[in-house]
Amino acid sequence: MLLLDGETLVHTSPTSCSKDDGTLYYTNRRILWIKHGAQTPSIVIQHEDFRLQQVSKADAKKVMLRISVMGPGQAPSDAPALTYTFAWKNANKEEALADRDKYVNELYKITPRKNAGGDAAPTGTSGTAAPSAAAVPNGSGKGAATMSSLHPEFAKVKIGTDPASAEDIKLRQDVLSKNADLAKLHRALVVSGLVSEEEFWSTRKHILETQAVQSQLRKGDSSTWLDLAPTTQDGGNFKYTITPNIAKRIFKEYPQVKRAYIDNVPHKIGEKQFWKRFLASRFFNRNRSTSAMKGNPDSIFDVCLRDEDSMLGDPDRFSSQFIMRLLDLSRTEEDSVETGNMPDFTMRPGRFSESLSLIRRFNHHSELVLQSAIGTKRKELSVSSATVDRELGRATMLPDLEQPRAEKRVKLNIQDQSRYLTSLVKGDVTMRSSDEDMLQQRSTFSINFDLSHPLSDCGNTQRTMAALTGSVRRVAFKSRPNRIKELNIPPSLSKAVEECYGAGTEMLRHLWAIMRLPMTPEKRQKADKITAAFDNVHKHIRSTITMANSAESKNANLGSTIEQMVQPVIDSLNAGKKEYERRVHGVNASS
Amino acid sequence: MSEAAEPEASLLVVVLDTNTAAWERCPLQFDRALQQVVIFLNAYLALKPENKLAVIATNKSECRYLYPTEFTDETTIPEMQVYEQFRDVDTKVLTGVQKMIESGSMSSDTPAGIEQGQSQVSRALSKALCYINRGTKASVNKIWPRILVVSVADDAPREYIALMNTIFAAQKLGVLIDVCKVVGSDSVFLQQAAEITGGNYLKVDTQENRGSLLQSLMFTCLADHFTRSMLYSPHNDLIDFRATCFCHKRVVDIGYVCSVCLSIFCKMAPVCSTCKTKFSFKLVRAPSAANGTSAGKKKPPVN
């Protein structure tokens, strides 16, 4: 049997399952059952999937254990889909019972806790289990409870005391399922126990907040023009598909059809028949082809046609009193009279009678879209002439033409300009000779301008060359495109290095965040915990280096390469710790 | 700007720092350094007959053209054994430097804010850019301009704004600025000049290498635009862009910046000591309060 990375065997027992003999294994990650003689396990249960256990009574003939498991792709809230029954084969019933109890105890630890309310905050569980319920992004969140019991350091590192609410956990799950990189980091840091769940999220609040806002947004209706396009079938027939969703949109676009539907379906004609007649009707086909009035006369839909024409063509549909003056095209007539412009003849309504109904329908559609967007927020048009004038004035005022108002300015009053500029120079500024020295120097400063003699000494050319080529080699190495690939680092190792960096960065992020603020006993406790958790990271780094030294690769000095790669993390961790200790001692000394 | 092609000529303007006070501190003697620079100039001219050269010398009080002659009244006596152009350049540069040092020791009128060990590099660079602008416009064929600054003096803080302006002008004109710092500490300003314009910054360790200035110049600054596109040039990996605080001149990792005059301080102060702006702290959330609110859960608005 193959164990996974980091998996350890806890118990084994000979058992039978579905009348086959085999061995039951319990590891810190999975429950396995292997049939006798088989190489691979025939039953594999991840701890995350485990839901429920049942045992036979102590006085029953056989010692049995039944395990209920969540099926693949099943949500945690669903009822468990699979059950396995294992029967102990040990003839000695006492021993078998004792053996089974070991499993029962282990399984009890990983049993997902259900709280009484079902949707309330899981306060009943231990402090670590609740916030870590979001640990695994694929929905099997309960597995994290296992992780906390398996990783004692996980509980140690934990800093936050409030258990997360159910909404928070859901939010976190949503974020992780959307963001693969974050989920990866989360798995590497939280699930492996380097950082606690609360800590992990405490520096990523903005992501959660964004997600919270996004989840609140409701999607509006589609504003696209409803276009029923048929699909061509064999034999030149057309097929229309009308789903309930499309029907809903048809009703919205054509209220007459809705009325007709309510009147006729289902007591007069069937639903299928109704849509068939709708698609064949003149009402439906009238704007779809150039040959007008194609389609069959239909008692139901001809009424609709008439209704629509009368509704859309009704000039009294809008009360002209409430038309905003800025949008009223008839008002432009005044312009042409006064300025001598030709009257606008392009905007005459109803000039093209054949496209009139289509134009009306387009306008109607735009109206619907606008209404759905504005919704109830539509402003009531004020009728009082004063406010109308004011609105009009505001709309017609062009800000570009207004007299620019002088901005209130404050003069930048730099007191000492030389100090301002001197600060830009680094290094020792005091190393300047005084004027007296200068005079003395000038007397001794003599230059031989006779260059007829050859250059006798070019300095230490070897050393200069070495320095220059060394510098060039560094530049060349840096700009080589696949220099990382040339190092031949196995993927598992590069992942481990990534994890080291992720964990280190996360820890330091928290530590520096605390250190920037004034120290309180509470914060100090927190910082102490973080610095203590540095040891975990160091351990991880050490194991990575050991792994590198033992790994096989084309790169002969892989170990030292990896060591160099993780050195910055070590340095930063040490620097952070040192700074923290310095501050703590500084505070102690002063107080 | 388009890519440089092989047969195209270069226009090199050398800004030579002749600040005697600074050269005094240099382990490499000035005349020896000068000799090496002149050899470099000859090498540059020998590289391509179309190559153009100008030399500008600067010190703490002035800056002037040494070459070409149109700006000086020097005349040279032709000599049979030396290539005419080499001799011309050599003589003019050397006599020019000599004159400049002599006049520098006479006059003591230094512009305000420039100290003994500092030179007017920004003035020289502006002159160089003007010359380049004229040269590139006058040239019929395409000519690729660059500047080499042989610097010995310390950075003059007074010059900062002027220098930065010339650097950005050079960047716009597509002029590379190579910098060769021969003595003293690294020049922050010139480092930026090289970085921004895409030139090389080179610190020649004259103490350790006993004056291999010529070798460094040849290696780093001789290649023209076209050749540079194929070469890795020695690069200063670590340019320190960190700021120093205005109050104690300490290099700081985290500083407080005045929102009005952009002065940097290592400690928070209620009044900016540079521009006397009084800061309103009402807008700044107290650190403890900020922490308190962030710890509390923010409920999303429920519609």
Task: Write up this protein.
The complex is a heterodimer of chains A (591) and B (303). Chain A has 591 residues and is an alpha+beta fold. Chain A folds into four domains: 9-110, PH-domain like (Roll); 131-216, no CATH class; 230-338 and 355-375, no CATH class; 483-590, Methane Monooxygenase Hydroxylase, Chain G, domain 1, CATH 1.20.58. Chain A is 49% helix and 8% strand. Chain A has 22 helices and nine strands. In chain A, strands 4-3-2-1-7-6-5 form a seven-stranded antiparallel beta sheet, with helices on one face. In chain A, strands 8-9 form a two-stranded antiparallel ribbon. Chain A starts with 8 loop residues before the first strand and ends with a helix. The model of chain A is unreliable at 115-161 and 427-436 (pLDDT under 50). Chain B has 303 residues and is of the alpha/beta class. Chain B has helices at 20-24, 30-47, 84-106, 121-138, 160-173, 188-197, 213-221, 225-228, 287-295; strands spanning 9-17, 52-58, 63-67, 143-151, 176-181, 201-203, 243-244, 251-252, 256-257, 264-265. In chain B, the strands form three sheets. In chain B, strands 3-2-1-4-5-6 form a six-stranded mixed beta sheet, with helices on both faces. In chain B, strands 7-8 form a two-stranded antiparallel sheet. In chain B, helix 2 (30-47) packs parallel to helix 7 (213-221), helix 4 packs parallel to helix 5 and helix 5 (160-173) runs parallel beside helix 6. Mean pLDDT of chain B is 79; it is low at 285-303. The interface between A and B is large, with 60 and 79 residues. Chain A: Belongs to the TFB1 family.
